[in-house]
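Q: Given only this backbone (427 positions), what sequence would you predict?
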């Protein structure tokens, strides 16, 4: 597994270096859409405590009522971490996971009535029928797929994105009654909406339409239903897997009924804005195209036709640099503008609004993890605008995968293979 992680990190670092060296800065649509200034006051002192550094590719955090912490590892394991740092053996009953490229076991969310029903929800990439769970080289999901014709891709069964629910046993040792509630199109982040439905983000499924890993090089607006079904989406389902009766595309037979919004690339961060109840996502874009979007039903966020980014130089086979995505435009009528984007990009991941009292200076701030840049971005929010940005935890030199506010009001971070806790003041 160490080799697998190093390959991903090396690819990301190479892409980041290329982006910084060669990519021109995209022109923002409005002032403050990118490159926000530093806050007028930097963050107050805080202490970083390591709860454990014995995880393997951790991806998500959930806080159990007994103060223990449930963590997913993308390699296909869930573990319980005690407050004193004791890490359990893998929880039994987790369905088989295919780990390939950016796919694996990802998010976990507790049911609102977890204390009574022990129900949780999780996202993962399942191997095709007859294939054993395992860790596959990067090229099996990328180079061996996007270089093939669409006709060839449609005969390939390399696995499927899934959302499942299960019951965590009373002793925290096993998952019981595992039930797949969505098959296809949702395997990244998952949040509970204020109305009790599940909002699940999924990456661009380029393998199902005439595209490649970094989009297309032509206008892609002639058949919008392809993008509604196969670009990165937010899907909305009830907690039993049924479709809410007010989903936006139910009146159109050629759009999948769970589709809530589309036109994203790889939305690896998601959080409900406590001030508005709306879903905000951090979309891990192409070279120079990471962005924050406010997700609204039925809206189009552009991918793979419109982007502030460009195709990754490192993946070009013809040697060209700064190749545009789609029609080459960064804005287009009918496409929602991101409220913020990074150029050079930061490799966005986990996302959190802070609402606690332990860090009063941070209340209402938005936090976004950066993978290749190895820092945590603190964003000061004013309505629907980002007005300041500060880099935190850069001295750790670790990829920031997830960030969550605990029941105690403290902040918990997955960095590298560690679970960290931020506490106010210096020790």
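A: Predicted residues:
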């Amino acid at each position: 597994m160490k080799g697998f992680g190093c390959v991903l990190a090396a690819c990301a670092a190479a892409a980041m270096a290329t982006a910084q060296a060669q990519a021109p800065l995209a022109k923002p649509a409005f002032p403050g859409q990118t490159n926000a200034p530093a806050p007028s006051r930097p963050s107050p002192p805080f202490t970083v405590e390591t709860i454990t550094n014995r995880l393997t590719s951790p991806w998500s955090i959930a806080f159990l009522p007994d103060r223990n912490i449930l963590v997913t590892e993308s390699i296909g394991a869930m573990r319980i971490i005690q407050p004193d740092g004791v890490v359990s053996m893998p929880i039994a009953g987790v369905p088989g996971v295919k780990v390939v490229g950016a796919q694996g076991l990802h998010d976990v969310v507790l049911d609102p009535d977890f204390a009574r029903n022990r129900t949780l929800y999780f996202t993962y990439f399942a191997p095709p029928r007859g294939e054993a769970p395992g860790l596959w080289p990067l090229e099996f999901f990328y180079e061996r797929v996007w270089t093939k014709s669409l006709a060839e891709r449609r005969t390939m069964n390399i696995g499927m994105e899934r959302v499942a629910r299960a019951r965590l046993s009373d002793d925290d040792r096993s998952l019981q009654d595992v039930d797949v509630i969505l098959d296809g199109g949702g395997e990244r982040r998952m949040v509970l909406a204020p109305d009790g439905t599940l909002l699940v983000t999924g990456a661009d499924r380029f393998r199902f339409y005439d595209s490649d890993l970094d989009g297309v090089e032509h206008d892609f607006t002639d058949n919008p239903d392809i993008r509604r079904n196969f670009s990165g989406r937010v899907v909305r389902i009830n907690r039993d897997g049924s479709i809410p009766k007010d989903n936006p595309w139910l009146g159109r037979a050629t759009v999948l009924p769970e589709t809530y919004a589309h036109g994203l690339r790889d939305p690896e961060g998601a959080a409900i804005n406590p001030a508005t109840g709306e879903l905000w996502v951090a979309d891990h874009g192409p070279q120079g195209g990471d962005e924050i979007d406010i997700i609204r039903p039925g809206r189009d966020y552009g991918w793979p036709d419109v982007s502030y980014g460009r195709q990754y130089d490192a993946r070009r086979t013809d040697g060209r640099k700064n190749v545009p995505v789609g029609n080459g435009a960064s804005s287009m009528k009918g496409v929602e503008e991101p409220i913020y984007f990074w150029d050079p990009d930061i490799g966005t991941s986990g996302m959190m609004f802070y609402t606690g009292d332990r860090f009063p200076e941070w209340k209402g701030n938005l936090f976004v993890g950066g993978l290749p840049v190895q820092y945590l971005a603190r964003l000061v929010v004013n309505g629907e605008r980002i007005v300041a940005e500060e880099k935190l935890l850069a001295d750790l030199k670790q990829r920031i995968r997830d960030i969550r506010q605990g029941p105690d009001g403290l902040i918990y971070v997955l960095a590298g293979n560690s679970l960290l806790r931020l506490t106010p003041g210096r020790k």
